[in-house]
């Protein structure tokens, strides 16, 4: 993290969001100014412009999968690096203006990811409800006080302590074990040192659209013993049927098996975006078989060097 006199962190606001809870886990951010923004694009623009040192953004949910807006933004904004990841348990409440009952609810305002995680509950309780998307869970709640378009909103627990709203129902999430994964993104070129419990994030494109191309990309990791914890396709957007792949690989760029896999991927793919190597939030050590230990790769290179040298 760059040391400057004015260190600011951006997060998806307003106050009370899960993103703010994730930022609260960053030791370096404590006591520093925090800037609430309206969307991922604004958060990353803060980082690119230098307004903020880093931005906290949601990238994956255990129920709904990858956050497409974040994945697409990371693919289109150059020079960004993930420098840490943080996990936040996620649950929701349904809130409304005072005087509103659950039977009055016809239209619900909610962030699309939150809505997807509560949809089964809503369809069971209010089967004919409508949905208005919001830029954040707290923004959805605030909209109830600013307009009459929605009757209720999906929001984080405790929202009623900050705003004049009443809670109509608690624990409305369809999965009580839901967790959202957040990443801290900056412009630093410094890579955190390997810990043995690390993750490397990438975005890669296939060289062409043909049978077996995806398998060949995956083999760059499989043949080096690198496990992939996430792989998700996103449209490139230049023509129909063209996709890029968002990849999370277990390991650090300084691990011999990972660096060798990245070399193979770079030779294979016309466009590879390295998003960073950083410690895993769950601190679970990376597992791999002994034949992919660093010493094996080092010995193999020395063996080849000896052959080239006439030994």
From TrEMBL:
<feature type="domain" description="ACT">
    <location>
        <begin position="202"/>
        <end position="280"/>
    </location>
</feature>
<dbReference type="InterPro" id="IPR008242">
    <property type="entry name" value="Chor_mutase/pphenate_deHydtase"/>
</dbReference>
<dbReference type="GO" id="GO:0009094">
    <property type="term" value="P:L-phenylalanine biosynthetic process"/>
</dbReference>
<dbReference type="InterPro" id="IPR018528">
    <property type="entry name" value="Preph_deHydtase_CS"/>
</dbReference>
<keyword id="KW-0057">Aromatic amino acid biosynthesis</keyword>
<keyword id="KW-0456">Lyase</keyword>
<keyword id="KW-0584">Phenylalanine biosynthesis</keyword>
<dbReference type="GO" id="GO:0005737">
    <property type="term" value="C:cytoplasm"/>
</dbReference>
<feature type="site" description="Essential for prephenate dehydratase activity">
    <location>
        <position position="180"/>
    </location>
</feature>
<comment type="pathway">
    <text>Amino-acid biosynthesis; L-phenylalanine biosynthesis; phenylpyruvate from prephenate: step 1/1.</text>
</comment>
<dbReference type="InterPro" id="IPR002912">
    <property type="entry name" value="ACT_dom"/>
</dbReference>
<protein>
    <recommendedName>
        <fullName>Prephenate dehydratase</fullName>
        <ecNumber>4.2.1.51</ecNumber>
    </recommendedName>
</protein>
<feature type="domain" description="Prephenate dehydratase">
    <location>
        <begin position="8"/>
        <end position="187"/>
    </location>
</feature>
<dbReference type="GO" id="GO:0004664">
    <property type="term" value="F:prephenate dehydratase activity"/>
</dbReference>
<dbReference type="Pfam" id="PF00800">
    <property type="entry name" value="PDT"/>
</dbReference>
<dbReference type="Pfam" id="PF01842">
    <property type="entry name" value="ACT"/>
</dbReference>
<dbReference type="InterPro" id="IPR045865">
    <property type="entry name" value="ACT-like_dom_sf"/>
</dbReference>
<dbReference type="InterPro" id="IPR001086">
    <property type="entry name" value="Preph_deHydtase"/>
</dbReference>
<keyword id="KW-0028">Amino-acid biosynthesis</keyword>
């Amino acid at each position: 993290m760059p040391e400057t006199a004015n260190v600011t962190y951006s997060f998806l606001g307003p106050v009370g969001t899960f993103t703010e809870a994730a930022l609260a886990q960053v030791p370096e951010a404590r006591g520093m100014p925090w800037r609430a923004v309206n969307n991922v694009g604004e958060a990353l623009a803060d980082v690119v412009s230098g307004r903020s040192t880093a931005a906290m953004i949601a990238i994956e949910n255990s129920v709904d999968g990858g956050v497409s807006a974040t994945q697409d933004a990371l693919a289109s904004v150059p020079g960004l690096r993930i420098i840490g990841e943080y996990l936040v348990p996620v649950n929701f409440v349904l809130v409304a203006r005072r005087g509103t009952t659950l039977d009055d609810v016809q239209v619900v305002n909610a962030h699309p990811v939150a809505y997807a995680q509560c949809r089964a509950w809503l369809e069971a309780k209010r089967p004919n409800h409508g949905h208005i998307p919001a830029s954040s869970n707290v923004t959805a709640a605030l909209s109830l006080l600013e307009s009459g378009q929605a009757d209720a909103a999906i929001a984080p627990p405790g929202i009623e302590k900050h705003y004049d709203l009443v809670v109509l129902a608690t624990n409305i999430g369809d999965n009580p074990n839901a967790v959202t994964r957040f990443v801290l993104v900056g412009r630093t070129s410094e890579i955190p040192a390997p810990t043995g419990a690390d993750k490397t994030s990438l975005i890669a494109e296939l060289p062409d659209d043909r049978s077996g191309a995806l398998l060949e990309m995956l083999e760059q990791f499989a043949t080096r013993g690198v496990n992939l914890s996430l792989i998700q396709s996103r449209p490139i957007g230049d023509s129909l049927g063209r996709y890029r792949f968002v990849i999370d690989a277990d390991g650090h760029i300084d691990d011999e098996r990972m660096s060798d896999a990245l070399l193979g991927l770079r030779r294979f793919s016309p466009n590879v975006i390295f998003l960073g190597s950083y410690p895993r939030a769950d601190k679970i050590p990376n597992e791999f078989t002994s034949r992919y230990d660093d010493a094996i790769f080092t010995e193999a290179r020395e063996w080849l060097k000896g052959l080239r040298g006439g030994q």
